[in-house]
Amino acid sequence: MGLSTKYINMISTLGGWIFFGIVIGSIVGCTTTFLLNVNDYLGEVRERTDWLILFLPVAGIVIGYLYMKVGKVELNHTLHDTAQENNLVIDAVHGTKEVPVRMGPIVFLGTFLTVFFGGSTGRESAAIQMGGSVAAAVIRLVKLNKPDRGVMIMSGISAGFGAAFGAPVTGAVFGMEMAALGRLKFEALVPCVTASFIGHYVTTAVLGHKHEEFMIQSLPHLSITTVITISLLSVLFSLTSVLYCQLRHWIQKVSEIWFKQNHMKRAFFGGLIIVALTALAGSQDYNGRGLEMLEQSFTEDVPPFAFLAKLVFTAVSLGSGFVGGEAIPLFFIGATLGNALHAFIDLPLSFLAALGLIAAFSSGANTPLAAFLLALELFDGKGLEYFFIACIVSYLFSGHHGLWPAQQIYEPKSRLYRVPNGETIESVEKRKNQ
After folding, report:
1. Residue 235 burial class via C-beta count within 10 angstroms: exposed 0-12, middle 13-18, buried 19 and up
2. Residue 365 has pLDDT above 70, yes or no
């Protein structure tokens, strides 16, 4: 092959990546804006109408029926269950499964029902799964080969995350970092960057959506004592994130055994528990996304056990079969825990909330680089040395646990863990329990 032919092939490939990134980013930007606006509206209606929470068990039946009757698709003689949510998207990146095109609309409807009737969830999973669904449609339309399919799915993830959080740099890296611990697939860099920035641009500049803003009012003085304190706090945030992940997966496992994989019964029973917990709490602060208290945690004191309440509400909601994201609940858990620690630790309130938000996300998602970039984008580059420490420490101390059992361990976080390369978080967990 001549030199000119190589350049032509390279330019052709890059042009294709950019084109597909623009297409995926544009579509996902539009669908994510729709998701965000509808979620905001439904959340506001629910907050004004307390009695809607009583219908959450019925909504659970509808969601369960949707996934049982519509969500299972056979492609290439293999069953693909959209109820696996982000885990199915991760499997598609690795080429072991495919994302059905119907996955996006199903998760949107499930998320709307969950938010409207008071389940405790976020929204980024719906954006990510819609991104995977759009990428899957592109893959089928142009009949891409197997290696390129994973790259396209990554770009869909990037578009969804960048558009959902107004963080295009984070979205670009998150799409490459989400699927495997210890590995970034830089082959996907061009389409991921393109899709994330286009998705963000469409959502904000074209369609005018305004994202939530979190402000750090002041930063602590840089010293050895401060670094040690932040490191110890990051361990605490990490362990809290692990507690959430383990409780959420345990509830899912137990409910599937009890109800014999019947998603309608699981979600109905989970809805009853959420109704009871809401009555016990005496408010609906921990239902829905909880954005109001999340923002409040940066400016004033919140209830000291708010982080624990949100942890339980979200673990029950998602573990029993309701639908939605886990990033915002992790933001809430980390930020309100940081807020509570302000009573004991002489560090600025808004800084502790921000530190908890980022550290909890880094350890739960197992994406330290994306979490660090998220801190830079959310907080205008303030305290970058502190957030770098928090992301690394929280990531290492979370062990091989996380939100998504399908994540592959390309390389263990440390040789001390003695985990073979190529396993998944799920297989490591199973081996520990044997």
Report:
1. middle
2. yes
